[in-house]
Amino acid sequence: MESYIGLGSNLDNPELQLEVALAALRDIPDTSLVKYSSFYRSMPLGPSDQPDFINAVALLDSGLKAGQLLSQLQSIENRQGRVRNGQRWGPRTLDLDILLYGNQVIDEPGLTVPHPGIRHRNFVLMPLLELAPDLEIPGLGRVDELSDAAGNVGITRLDLARNAG
Ligand code: ROI
């Protein structure tokens, strides 16, 4: 199944966190990293007394079920020092979210797909626009239209060209 993954970090060298996470995504069993977006610097959504985030989106092609893929992502987060301290919308070394899993709609405890934040988060929509402008998000609409609506306030693309090799 094709699955889009959101990556975010704002602690401990965020760009390096994303590079390390991309390498880890390549190593998930029965899964390939098809491509990934540029990196973006974005103002924090939530408490503003935290560093800017670095965000990107990756496309995986995986034979895993959504729940299995989620476990793999959580183990990567944990390996990269993710601490779950209960602070809502606080800073983190690495956040990996399943944004989309094919065109499936999933509503389970701990796993809501499409990710409920997509619509209002330009730091998800801008990198997704790079990868899949024509993509239809179940229940929400086309990525290019959603991205237009969300705007580009508080986000800049880092000028490093990146391509999955
Ligand atoms: N803000 C930005 N800009 N990027 C994120 O990835 C991000 N992730 C989060 C919260 C803390 C809500 N804010 C964010 O989890």
Question: How would you portray this structure in words?
Answer:
By secondary structure, this protein is an alpha+beta fold. It has a single domain (2-157), classed as 2-Layer Sandwich (Alpha-Beta Plaits). The protein is built from 4 helices and 10 strands, in the order E-H-E-E-E-H-E-E-E-H-E-E-H-E. The protein has helices at residues 14-26, 66-79, 122-131, 143-150; strands spanning 2-9, 31-36, 40-42, 53-62, 95-101, 106-108, 111-113, 136-137, 141-142, 155-157. The strands form 3 sheets. Strands 1, 2, 3, 4, 5 and 10 form a 6-stranded antiparallel sheet that branches. Strand 6 (106-108) and strand 7 form a beta hairpin. Helix 3 (122-131) runs antiparallel to helix 4 (143-150). The model has no long low-confidence stretch (mean pLDDT 94). Bound molecules: 7,8-dihydro-7,7-dimethyl-6-hydroxypterin. Residues 8, 42-46, 53, 55, 89, 95, 123 line the site of 7,8-dihydro-7,7-dimethyl-6-hydroxypterin.
Radius of gyration: 15 Å
Quote the beta fraction: 25-35%
Give a count of the beta strands, DSSP E runs of length 2 or more. 10
The CATH H-level superfamily is 7,8-Dihydro-6-hydroxymethylpterin-pyrophosphokinase HPPK
- What string, H for helix and E for strand, traces the elements in order? EHEEEHEEEHEEHE
Spatial gap, N to C terminus: 20 Å
Helical element count? 4
CATH topology: Alpha-Beta Plaits
Query: Which structural class do the helices and strands define?
Result: alpha+beta
